[in-house]
Fold these 3 entries.
Entry 1:
Amino acid sequence: MISVNGSHKSNTPLIVSNVKLLLMGSGGSGKTTMGKVLESIIAEEFENNLIACHEYKPTPGVAFYKIPFENIHAILWELGGQKRYRPLWNLWWAGSKGAFLLVDSTASSQIIEESKLILKLLKETINVPFVVCANKQDLPAALKPEEIAKILGIENNIPVIGTSSITGLNVKTAFYKLLSIIDGIGSRKNDS
Ligand SMILES: Nc1nc2c(ncn2[C@@H]2O[C@H](COP(=O)(O)OP(=O)(O)OP(=O)(O)O)[C@@H](O)[C@H]2O)c(=O)[nH]1
Ligand SMILES: [Mg+2]
């Protein structure tokens, strides 16, 4: 096992491959954009504002993003957030080791209700460690991560990180945080 600061607890080199992580959240919360940004940030191709807001095209079912990072090959499974795909989610979450819950921080009542349901699912059914991304922090109407945590009733032990899939704000931090709370995996780098 590797701890968060990268120190080995045993002499055995850690080789972890194909760690399956979920990208969950209501339709339009920013999962596709986050998946693409994370791929380019980890590949060090990302510059601020490189990703422009794009026309929203809902993901038809499921999408994948490969994030090779040191000895960890994370595969993000985006579960399309539109209502019609939800009956299929349970076919896709099997074998996942962790998850991101993206919340659109402009927080309409519909977003809040949907995010609460996904939160419950993550805690009671999928049962993996997860990080909440209070996304779209670049928008003036966005609520702060603390406000999102309060509205959703999120306990203190669950990380809630303010992110923007457009500017890249804290996207890498959220990725490292998730790796650090998954048993047996640790991140070795800090966000720059
Ligand atoms: N301002 C801003 N817009 C964002 C952000 N993330 C995504 N968007 C925009 O929000 C819309 C929806 O983004 P997507 O990434 O497609 O949302 P999604 O969660 O994948 O949606 P589904 O596939 O339907 O579940 C797009 O128009 C994006 O450009 C963000 O952090 N800030
Ligand atoms: Mg999508």
Entry 2:
Amino acid sequence: MERFKPVIELAREEDMPEVIRILKTCGNYFEGEEEWLARSRTLVARYEGRVIGARSFEKLVNGYYHVYGLCVDPAYRGRGVGADLCRHVEEIVYHEGGVGYIGEALDEELAQFYVRKLGVKICRFSLRGWRSNLVPYRKEFRQEGIGDSIKLSIRRFTLFWIRIRRLRKIVELLESASRRVKQV
Ligand SMILES: CC(C)(COP(=O)(O)OP(=O)(O)OC[C@H]1O[C@@H](n2cnc3c(N)ncnc32)[C@H](O)[C@@H]1OP(=O)(O)O)[C@@H](O)C(=O)NCCC(=O)NCCS
């Protein structure tokens, strides 16, 4: 059986009314969505010339990207289009040197969809989640910061200390062996 493989590409201006129509049908359309979309980039999944799904993303000032607006036409769901769109956006963010991305799932089940398909982490304590009923999530491509540096230093020091103790034990064994030889 031929694999269903829509083309995923950057949306053209004329695609946007269709993107908004699908967002509305999916219940993932928010007040002011058009302005958000205008300052973002949108990837669309296109099949036989028709837009059947979309995912938008915008670059934030801190090296992170904000991803949002995932939607797939109900007639084409369950065939990997949603996950493919998410992975394509992730690839772009990664190749542009982004630190990672943040997003908000509409509910807990959808947050688990992002965990399963993308390996994101749900941010239980994020203010973004408290202000709304959405479930915030994030994914980072690198780990750094003072916390990581401290953990690394502690690990290095512990390893160094274990090696020194082992070395001391070897020296003690050698000394006691040489003492015994001398006594004989
Ligand atoms: C969520 C959505 C984008 C998935 O698109 P899709 O093309 O069907 O996704 P895929 O085929 O890649 O993946 C299918 C998976 O999505 C899961 N899924 C679909 N709708 C879901 C929902 N409402 N909640 C949780 N999981 C859902 C399916 O259970 C399936 O899981 P599995 O692969 O582990 O069996 C699509 O259902 C949709 O447009 N929903 C309405 C809009 C929406 O909720 N957008 C996300 C806002 S956070």
Entry 3:
Amino acid sequence: MNYHNRCKLHVFGDVYVTVNDYNNITYVHVRYFDGKYPTKKGVAMSLARWKSLVQLIPKIQENRSADQSAFEHLGGNCYVSITDGIPGIDLRQFWMPDGDLQVKATRRGVHFSQQDFDKFVDLIPRINCYIPEFHDIKLCSERDDHQNQQGLLRCKECNPNEYHIQ
Ligand SMILES: [Zn+2]
């Protein structure tokens, strides 16, 4: 096992973004800290999820200014969302309970006020300084086996809940 921390950047309150390599896999965490220590409240994103989040920012900002809800899948049941009647933006891990058809929110996530989300967005170029491979990251949807719906449905990242169309 090896672990390497690339950066820890403050977003707001007790929330930090960290980029680290764990067994040679890079993760971007957005997470509440308790003093020096990370808590379970937050998300760990693979670089593909991180890139899809970054690419979704303009859309999220647009929905936000238009007062529209949003529910965007980053992969593996990680969502960025805006909910009607709840101010701010939510970045969160969801899960699908057995036998259910709708994903449910977990406590593992961060809720941003609009102001805090702006701080987060402003921080993205600085975060990406620590991810020199950013432009080479391939999104799941860009892969050859995702050019038809079958491939998409078979992908654990895009379709994590094994929902099968009959
Ligand atoms: Zn996929």
